[in-house]
């Protein structure tokens, strides 16, 4: 197999439509569905088989967290936005990425360069110091590539969710709280969480058929605290409650709590992921296609100046490339919830939920 450097290939709605009918799109959605189905009724605290591949991936995630611990934020008290030390962290991870991949069993050395691109991008955007569902998608794609190359198997799917993916979320909470990563969007992931989508999808699968816990249980603080360690959904609700008010910060989660069953919630989450992540140009225009997750559609034409203009002004470009995403000129910059909390005199620890954070609106 010949490996290549992943690259962006989608610039237009027509190319997005082609992607939605492609094998790569189907592979991603199938992987999500398979992971989802394997964790129905499974708790985070349940025992599961840990293959050598899974153990190696967990060690890699531990190394990434160690890099963050060794890269403290700089004194940036004047800003409630992303801390520039994140760029140093990003460069350090990029530097050690090849060596980290060499620790993964059965991974061909020729594939390391291709996989390292997804790996680097799953921690956030270096230029904008932000994070959102597109970066989370890069981590998912990294796992898909590892499975296609034999590092993990379909028998590892339970562990990939309740051990690997949840560990990734834990590391991301450290990065979000350490570097005040801005949400990659005006108000996060459509009213779910400022940063993540998949923990709610997998988390609702964990709760399908539960005899006592219902979607409305997210409004009971005691239940949330008790079951946050067992279920991703409640773990994420606890995190939101530690930084903001659920009702104004995550209106969609508030609305979803009125749904009668977790089966319906989970079904809706999968449809929403397909439509709002895999089906949205602002997200998928940044998707990276390589040899493992290939692009088989028409290649984009060289962009014209009109591609970068919005209402008679140019979009902000990232260093080294022309950026088709919305710059701060086209929307409302939103500070990290951690920056907002700090501005109010509260300090959030680098964990899934920090103590003493009162609701602070993004102003």
UniProtKB/TrEMBL annotation:
<dbReference type="InterPro" id="IPR043170">
    <property type="entry name" value="PTPA_C_lid"/>
</dbReference>
<protein>
    <recommendedName>
        <fullName>Serine/threonine-protein phosphatase 2A activator</fullName>
        <ecNumber>5.2.1.8</ecNumber>
    </recommendedName>
</protein>
<comment type="similarity">
    <text>Belongs to the PTPA-type PPIase family.</text>
</comment>
<keyword id="KW-0697">Rotamase</keyword>
<dbReference type="Pfam" id="PF03095">
    <property type="entry name" value="PTPA"/>
</dbReference>
<dbReference type="InterPro" id="IPR004327">
    <property type="entry name" value="Phstyr_phstse_ac"/>
</dbReference>
<dbReference type="InterPro" id="IPR037218">
    <property type="entry name" value="PTPA_sf"/>
</dbReference>
<comment type="function">
    <text>PPIases accelerate the folding of proteins. It catalyzes the cis-trans isomerization of proline imidic peptide bonds in oligopeptides. Acts as a regulatory subunit for PP2A-like phosphatases modulating their activity or substrate specificity, probably by inducing a conformational change in the catalytic subunit, a direct target of the PPIase. Can reactivate inactive phosphatase PP2A-phosphatase methylesterase complexes (PP2Ai) in presence of ATP and Mg(2+) by dissociating the inactive form from the complex.</text>
</comment>
<keyword id="KW-0963">Cytoplasm</keyword>
<keyword id="KW-0413">Isomerase</keyword>
